[in-house]
Design goal:
This protein is an alpha/beta fold and about 130 residues long. It is about 25% helix and about 20% strand.
């Protein structure tokens, strides 16, 4: 599918690599001005867009800093893609509606629907069956 996003202003979180970077590349190729926010601004991100911002979105101030920067840079935001993911082991649970999970944020974390529970839970990779 091809579409024209010329003149649109986009913000993508988690833009340094993977899906976030691919979203930046796709939006930019469709004509949008894209601000890629990432904890680490990679050479690939810089090649995809001239608008980058290094930010740690796990911090309380991170999301606000990114949006303030985008508004200052663009004057407004038309598209927001939140592709940010948690990748620091040992921090607060990401999702736990079951009330008994000892889940942690990690790159190896997996979100799965557990048929035995009435809710979503995040499980560490070493918890996988």
């Amino acid at each position: 599918m091809e579409f024209d996003l010329s003149g649109k202003k986009a913000v993508v979180t988690g833009a340094g690599a993977g899906i976030g970077l691919a979203v930046v590349q796709a939006l930019a190729s469709a004509g949008a001005d894209v601000l890629g926010g990432a904890r680490t601004v990679t050479p690939e991100l810089r090649a995809a867009t001239p608008f980058t911002y290094e930010v740690d979105l796990i911090t309380e101030q991170g999301p606000q800093q990114l949006i303030k920067h985008a508004l200052a840079e663009f004057g407004g935001i038309d598209i927001l893609v939140n592709q940010h993911h948690f990748s620091r082991a040992g921090e607060d649970p990401v999702v736990d509606q079951s009330g008994d999970s000892e889940a942690s944020r990690s790159d190896a974390g997996r979100v799965r629907r557990d048929g035995a529970q009435d809710g979503w839970a995040v499980h560490r990779a070493d918890d996988r069956a």
